[in-house]
Amino acid sequence: MSRTPIAIAVGLVAFTAYAAVVVAIGDRLRGAHWLVELAYFAVVGFVWTYPALRLITWAAKRPNT
User: Nearest CA to 55 among 22, 11, 9?
Assistant: First the structure.
């Protein structure tokens, strides 16, 4: 079985959950200094790339046959 459908399903669920958490925390930061908001969104904008890269790498591997 191909790993691609599993990776797509996991990626969609995980990214949706991550976005919901990021937005919920971001709402609490409203009214904070603009540098705090900028730093927060810059960090969370890049943090998701590491697990996404790992998931894509896993999906692209050939299963042992």
Answer: 11
Structure tokens, 13: 């669920």
20 within a domain of the structure (yes/no): yes
Q: Confirm if 12 and 63 have CB atoms less than 8 A apart.
A: no
Two tokens, residue 32: 């904070």
- Mean pLDDT, consecutive 10-residue stretches, the chain (65 aa), reads 90 96 95 94 95 94 72
Judge whether 13 and 24 are in contact, CB under 8 Å.
no
CA–CA separation, 37 and 53 (whole Å): 25
Distance of alpha carbon 7 from alpha carbon 34, whole angstroms: 36
In a domain, 10, yes or no: yes
